[in-house]
């Protein structure tokens, strides 16, 4: 399988950012709606300090990435781009390995630039977690 480069990783990340941002906005609307129903007007988003929003968002992103990689080896963005996270055996990572990879992606996002100098286009989080992001279109079997 061919390793995914920086451009395909970035395109998949843009789709994933849209999914997570939509989920965050939807959660804000639901929470605000519940508060409006219980307390009355005005309808307003919850006021959170910046650090709390940032921490909560980081936890959400780590959970989103870990779940996708541990269950199917891909996030929705990677599904759209035909990418999959695999271990050396070619299988999706188990939950622990997926969590380590996700945590490194969130804490050290600049590590993806390692793909520009890596022979096998692995990012820092791939090297540490023992994974690779490869091209693996979901319809590959249907085409044969």
From TrEMBL:
Keyword Transmembrane helix: yes
Keywords from the named record: Cell membrane, Membrane, Transmembrane, Transmembrane helix
Protein origin, superkingdom: Bacteria
Membrane topology field: Multi-pass membrane protein
Membrane-crossing segments per the record: 51-71, 98-117
Pfam families named among the record's database cross-references: RDD (PF06271)
Subcellular location per the Swiss-Prot or TrEMBL entry: Cell membrane
RDD domain segment(s): 4-130
Claim: Membrane is one of the keywords in the record: yes
Protein name: Uncharacterized membrane protein YckC, RDD family
Species of origin: Jiangella alkaliphila
Lineage: Bacteria, Bacillati, Actinomycetota, Actinomycetes, Jiangellales
